[in-house]
């Protein structure tokens, strides 16, 4: 199915799914028709549903869970580490009745998607990773997006920090000291992410990447200052047969170029 412009046309359903006897509760947004596709968000996304997902939902049944600790999903305090998070997402797939799935992940979400594809290779039909975290090079360290103040964070995440999409994002980024709700949400997001990536995002994923069996596509912004393009080469070297698409944008390329990013996923994964 052809991907058109990123116009909001779908109203996703919201589900609350309890895992492990209610110890973990996921808020999952779902829309579309077709083969199931699970999307793992970046902790720096402000909206659980985006134009990028709207476009994907024209070709797939899209499921977008919020990571535990943010946006209505709870139970992060019961998860020990990244492996535990990987296992609980496998349990979520079971609760959704999904056996085989296309996985798409952005930034930290890409790290999670890669872990699932490595630990449960038979579950994954295709894997799309948009500037995933999880690797580390001392000669090219990725930006510490957990501790950057709001103005520096915007410059690291967006190719053009004064673009419309970046300015809309900045409204809820926690940079306004008088916006208490935004301050609290920003703290929640950072602390939740820190549990799995602090002090650096290398948690041994590189030792598991050889287990990925699914066709893999890497999507990268050509001006990514948070996670430099050199990491795309590192992922290609470690994931057999991984393809790379460079798109105009920064680390938030899925939101800066949603039409091009969605088209890349649809062309690669197929409906």
Cα gyration radius (Å) = 17 Å
- Give the end-to-end Cα distance, rounded to a whole number of Å: 7 Å
CATH class term: Alpha Beta
Write the CATH homologous superfamily: Alpha/Beta hydrolase fold, catalytic domain
H/E series, N to C? Answer: EEEHEHEHEHHHEHEHH
Write the layout of secondary structure elements.
Blueprint (H helix, E strand, L loop, with lengths): L12 E7 L4 E9 L3 E5 L10 H6 L4 E5 L16 H15 L4 E6 L1 H12 L4 E7 L19 H8 L6 H7 L9 H18 L18 E6 L8 H9 L4 E5 L5 H4 L1 H12 L2
Parallel strand pairs: 3-4, 3-5, 5-6, 6-7, 7-8
Antiparallel strand pairs: 1-2, 2-4
Helix pairs in contact: 2-3
Task: Write up what this structure looks like.
There is one protein chain. The protein is α/β, with parallel strands linked by helices and 271 residues long. It has a single domain, classed as Alpha/Beta hydrolase fold, catalytic domain (Rossmann fold). It has 9 helices and 8 strands. The longest helix is centred in the C-terminal third of the chain and has 18 residues, at 180-197.
Offer a quick outline of the entry:
The chain is of the alpha/beta class and 271 residues long. 34% of the residues lie in helices and 18% in strands. β3, α1 and β4 form a beta-alpha-beta unit.
